[in-house]
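Notes on consecutive records. When two proteins share a document, each keeps its own sequence and its own token line. Never mix them. Below: protein one.
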Amino acid sequence: MPYASLPVARTADGSIRGVGLEFEFIGPDVGRTVSALREALGGEAEGGPHSQYLRDSSIGDIKVLLDMGFVQREGPDPDLQRVVGEIGGVLVPVEIVLPPLPHDELDQIDPALEALRAAGAQGTSGAALYAFGMHINTEVVSLEIADIYPVLRAFALIEDGIRDSHPIDLGRWMLPFVDPYPRGFIDAMARGEGRNNPDDLIDVYTQHNATRNRGLDMLPILRAIDAERVQARLPAGEKGGTRPTFHYRLPDCRIDEPGWSPAVEWNVWTTVERIASDAALIDALAQGWLAHRARWTTLRTDWPPRIDAILREGGYAELKEMMAA
């Protein structure tokens, strides 16, 4: 499957928008993971058993690490951590963090994923208890409300349709790491709350989403706008990065499935941005959502068919077909 193009290809300063990808899996340990990546992409390895960099690969510096948060939850025992370093990857998740790539060069990573598959990497379906995911970090056009709000609003209004047409693994669905936006927040987005200035957007978002555990985590962007205001509205233990990227956490990591490519998930994201670029369509979805919520009783499962109807009325294909294009 080819990687679809973003509807807005460049940032406000004229550079090609970048995309950073992250993958979680078990199987090969850190060393064998780096070896597989090196075979596919070149470069030189440096680091220890828990964390290594593949420097100067054909796509830049790649970070490979054990999920030491898993180890720390088991306790601070140094003997345990030593053993984990020796068996890590078999029982402890490995995470790959790729450098930002131009969005029109994402196909460069496919040979690396094929090498990891051959090395025995097991993703979401191969290790359901771990709830492994693939994260897509897409650079914003700018931090201006006009460039951020339509994308957030579009995602909020079609998220139920994405989950219906492109469902995630049951194990991840049952765990809280990628919970959907609350319906109260979708109501706020449909009404246009938070669209006038950054403070209002931070306030309405954190009122409903004081956590990173959403399909689309906006906290990194909002911290890049005003970190102090964001942190003041989050629980004390809620941490996270600060970067001007849409942190799309919903996708499964299906690295072990023959023929799978990140293009499958990337094309879902580009569909969100395509819908966001059509102001009339977004307004129609917003009005449709408010009418849907005004009914005597509603379920989240009632909304996806209405999304498709609104898309057709706007001259688009249904959501599943758009995401597969």
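Protein two starts on the next line and is unrelated to protein one.
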Amino acid sequence: MRTRMILRMVLILAAISLTLTLILYIALIDLSYVEIYIDDSIIYRFIVPCGSEVSISFNNSYTGSPVAITLEICREFRGAGMITDAAGYEYYSQDILDVNMSLKTYKSKEIIFCTSQKLEIKILGNKLLINNSCARIKSRDLIKLSTP
């Protein structure tokens, strides 16, 4: 009788442990680890939920147009959209492609922007200003999912 009770307790604890592990695993799947480097030195690390946005703003050095690019983060960066003036759209599209449609197909684990002027990066309410440097932003899986 006592052995049966101990066995039931062990099974209940195992079930609770498995359930908690599964809940934690599912929660972590929807998180990404983001690193921001300036001139190859890491300066920020973030854990962000899927669907978070990173915004990169700068002035185009050729047209002088203000440009704001928005990317969504979910284990990789995905293009969301770009806002600029008519001269900026003309410069980036060359009257051939729709910049925003093209940007929506963009996917990458890493983005790099270099500027000879000012660059602003916004992520999770944090703002980073960069002058005359290169910024590299990497997205990594918090949990690496294995594929068969």
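For the record: The chain has one domain: 32-141.
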